[in-house]
Every structure is written in C-alpha cells, then in structure tokens.
C-alpha cells in the first residue's frame, strides 16, 4: 500500500501510467503481476520521508510506534466557515502541518544524513549531501520571486545569493546541517497555493446552479443559501497548475451543479459540507476530497490520483480514479472504475461498492489525459485497514444486483464516447437486461391492447400522474426539476 501511495504522489506522465496499466492487465496470474511489480523501484530517501509522515498520521496504529504525536496535531482552528471545531472533527489544518514539521524538522533531516557522516564529524559539523536536500524537496518546495513561480528546494538552496544562508560549500559540494536547518526554519511557511490561501485570497466562481436558474419567472425567491465556490487558478503559475490549482466547493445545499471547464480541468477539488445536492464535475481532475457531506450524489470526471471521503453520510460517488479511500463515513455508495483496491479506513459503516455504470461524451478523452484505462477494475476487492472491520461482520458490502440501475448523465457534451468504458460484471448485466425486457414486454402489452385515441390519452394521463406521485414520494422530484433549463437558456 505504501509503495502504491508513493507512486501516486510522484508526477508521472499520463502515457507512462497507461503503459503500466496495460502491462498489468496482460498478466494472467497473480505471480506474473507480482513479478512485474517487483521491477518497480523507489527513491530510498524520499520513501523514508513518506514512511516517517505516515507513522505519525492519526489513522496509523500509533500504540506500536515510538512516536505518539499525531500528524497533524489538530488543535482548535478556524475551518472553512470561520468557526472553531473540536480537534477530532478538523479534517485539514495547514497551520498545524507547519507547526508539526518545524517541531520535527531536526528528526526529519537526520533521516537524510549519510551513516558514515556521524563517525567522520562532530555533531556540530554534520553535513547534508545534494541528494539529501533533493529528497527533502519531496515535502518542501520554494520560491525566490514572491510565489510567481515554484522551484525545487535544492534549486532555491543553490541560488548564488542564498548559498551563504543555506550553508552550501562549493569545495565539499555539501550543505552544513546546522546552517541549512536554520535557513529552513527562518523561511518555511504555508503553501501559497494551499487550502487556507485559497480561502483567504481565492477568486469566487459564479457557477450557475440549475435549481436556482430554473425558477419560473415571477416565482417567489427561495431562501436556499447559495454555496461558496472559489479557486486559486488565477494566481498559480501556468506551467505548474498540476497539483497546485485548487477549487473549493462549500455549503452547496439543495442545488444541482454541472460543470466542465478549463478552470476545473486537472484541479484539486475540495467538496465540503454539501447537502442534498447533485454535483456533476465532468472534467479530468487531479484529486478530490469530499468532507462532511450529506445526502448528495457526486459524479466525477476521471481523477488522476485519489478520491477521499471523510465524515460523509448517505453520499453516492460515481467516478473513475487511480485510488479511492473512505473514512468515518456511513451509508455511502461508491460506483467505481479503479485499477487499485478501494481503501476502507477506520470509522466506517454500511459502505456499498458497485461497478461504474455511466458515461459522458468526453469520458474516454479525459481518461487518457489522466492516464487511466479500463484495463482492470478492482472495485470489488477493497482493502480494509480500519480497526472496526471484522471478517465475519464487514463494514462494506457489494451492491445486490436487484438494486443496481444504470445511471444516465443528462447533459450533452461534444465527444466520441458512446457507452460506459468497461463491461458490467455478468450478474449486474443480467439484472439490467431482465429489467429492459420487462419494460419492452410492458410496452408491447400496451401497444397490443387496442386502445382507442381517447383511451390512450386517458392512459397517458394516468401514467404521468402516477409518475409524478412516485417522483414526489421517492424524493427525486427536486432532482428532475433542477435539470429543467431556464427560459433564457432555451432561447439562446
């Protein structure tokens, strides 16, 4: 799992990911797959840093570890709404991240020292190699032009004017451990392209919300609170958008949002406290975080790295992604196309897994952009690491075929994809086929009933009435009403 995580956070060209997935899909046995995976390698120093961070993470089994402080230490801090929340409910606190790194910077840097350096020098004369500083760039990046561009930590440390402060010696080709640490401490700060920065200085997006737009002319204005959507796309360097461009969607309530755009493309999306909403984000995405959402359906374009759900309830996610993980959530349904095993962490209950079952016209194109294929789908092979999961009483289940329905995305986009990218498993395909036959049989029966013109009208009115009653009783009426285009849009 850690090796897969390491590969995820590295920047791979989409074509490399496509080739790897293709090779993996061609393996006919588990032995062949294991043999292929054994050919992969990792940068040792960077991987050590990843493990150090992981063993301090809250979800780790801390009781068996030397260190006991959490990553991060989630003390009271303002969240997206400006309120204070208890430590256990805080999902992201960049200030605590910085505090943690500064408190443990000496230990982190000591992991990167060459073993023989301890014997050759006194502790005050310890040095860091260029390779060690390059590895530290796995966690820390820098800038020398007030964040107009992002540079690797090593590149910043070797700038001519910076070398006296960073402790670099041209004679030895190494950095003074003491001076480098002092230089880092004096300049380290929050990422200018992080969540907190986006909240503070981001540009608000006025994405149309269908339910709001579809209100008939002259109808009373509802009191539904409009959600907050913001991005930092305008301030991220154009050649460094991947991984730095962020879109935050917060407090979208009883709305339908459908979007495909350049701003959304390859962004890291944070969906926070959205309730009773339908969100269609039909662009290739870098990563998606879904937190504290309730009774919502979220349809995603292909996600290059990770989709993570945390503290959600009655949420349905439909998407293609490299990896998906879920924690502290209940009664959630995941329709997936993923080449890795779904990661079920702690605090979950009643999680339903199902195969991916929809498409839109640009899906295949977007999958190629994110390095994803339909070569293998491990949606039904979750990896449960939470302490509340037991083999005799799992926190997840596969969706029963009788409850499975295909999902239609009700928007027209120019593209070549005409069907779902992967074939349904046999039992689900049979359930869909049986349902289609029942519909055909019913339509045939109506056609052969020999109804007169007036009887057909009366029958049609009865069907429509019953359908409207079903929409209201099932709660789908708001969803359908939200898809009605406003009159101004129709005229255009």
Structural summary, described in words:
With 492 residues, the chain is an alpha/beta fold. It contains 18 helices and 20 strands. The chain has a 15-stranded mixed β-sheet that branches. A three-stranded antiparallel β-sheet has the order 1-5-4. A two-stranded antiparallel sheet has the order 2-3. A hairpin with an 8-residue loop joins strand 2 (141-142) and strand 3. The chain is elongated. The two termini are 51 Å apart. The model is unreliable at 58-92 and 486-492 (pLDDT under 50).
The gist of it:
This protein has 492 residues and is an alpha/beta fold.
Helix/strand class: alpha/beta
Q: Termini, distance in Å?
A: 51 Å
- Average residue pLDDT: 83
Let me know the number of strands: 20
Shape: elongated
Count of discrete alpha- or pi-helical segments spanning 4 or more residues? 18
Question: Which residue ranges are poorly predicted, with pLDDT under 50 across at least 5 consecutive positions?
Answer: 58-92, 486-492
Q: For the CA atoms, what is the radius of gyration? A: 26 Å
Beta-strand residue percentage = 15-25%
Largest sheet features: 15 strands, mixed
Helix content: 25-40%
């Amino acid at each position: 799992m850690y090796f897969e995580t390491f590969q995820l956070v590295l920047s791979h060209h989409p074509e490399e990911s496509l080739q790897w997935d293709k090779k993996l899909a061609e393996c006919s046995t588990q032995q062949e797959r294991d043999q292929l995976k054994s050919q992969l390698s990792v940068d040792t120093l960077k991987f050590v840093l990843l493990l150090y961070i992981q063993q301090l993470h809250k979800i780790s089994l801390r009781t068996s570890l030397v260190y006991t402080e959490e990553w991060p230490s989630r003390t009271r801090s303002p969240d997206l709404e400006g309120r204070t929340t208890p430590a256990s409910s805080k999902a992201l606190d960049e200030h605590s991240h910085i505090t943690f790194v500064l408190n443990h910077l000496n230990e982190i840097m000591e992991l990167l020292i060459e073993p023989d350096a301890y014997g050759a020098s006194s502790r005050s004369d310890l040095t860091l190699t260029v390779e060690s500083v390059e590895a530290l760039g796995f966690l820390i990046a820098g800038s020398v032009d007030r964040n107009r561009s992002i540079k690797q930590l090593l590149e910043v440390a070797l700038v001519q004017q910076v070398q006296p402060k960073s402790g670099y010696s041209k004679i030895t080709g190494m950095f003074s451990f003491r001076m480098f640490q002092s230089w880092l401490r004096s300049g380290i700060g929050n990422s200018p392209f992080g969540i907190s920065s986006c909240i503070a200085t981001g540009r608000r997006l006025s994405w149309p919300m269908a339910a709001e737009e579809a209100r008939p002319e002259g109808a009373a204005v509802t009191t539904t609170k409009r959600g907050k959507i913001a991005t930092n796309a305008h301030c991220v360097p154009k050649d460094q958008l991947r991984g730095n461009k962020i879109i935050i969607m917060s407090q979208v309530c009883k709305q339908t949002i459908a979007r495909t755009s350049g701003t959304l493309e390859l962004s890291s999306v944070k969906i926070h406290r959205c309730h009773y909403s339908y969100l269609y984000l039909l662009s290739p995405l870098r990563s998606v975080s879904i937190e504290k959402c309730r009774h919502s359906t979220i349809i995603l374009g292909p996600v290059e790295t990770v989709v993570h759900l945390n503290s959600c309830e009655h949420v349905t996610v439909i998407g293609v992604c490299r990896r998906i993980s879920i924690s502290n959530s209940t009664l959630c349904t995941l329709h997936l196309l993923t080449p890795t095993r779904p990661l079920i962490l702690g605090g979950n209950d009643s999680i339903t897994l199902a195969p991916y079952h929809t498409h839109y016209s640009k899906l295949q194109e977007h999958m190629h952009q994110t390095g994803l294929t339909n070569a293998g789908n491990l949606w039904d092979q979750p990896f449960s690491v939470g302490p509340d999961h037991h083999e005799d009483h799992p926190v997840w289940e596969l969706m029963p075929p009788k409850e499975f329905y295909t999902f239609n995305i009700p928007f027209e986009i120019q593209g070549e994809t005409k069907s779902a990218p992967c074939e349904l498993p046999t039992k689900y395909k049979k359930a869909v086929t049986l349902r289609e036959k029942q519909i055909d049989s019913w339509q045939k029966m109506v056609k052969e009933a020999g109804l007169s013109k007036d009887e057909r009208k009366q029958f049609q009115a009865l069907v429509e009435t019953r359908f409207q009653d079903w929409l209201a009783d099932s709660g789908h009426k708001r969803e359908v009403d939200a898809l009605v285009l406003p009159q101004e849009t129709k005229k255009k």
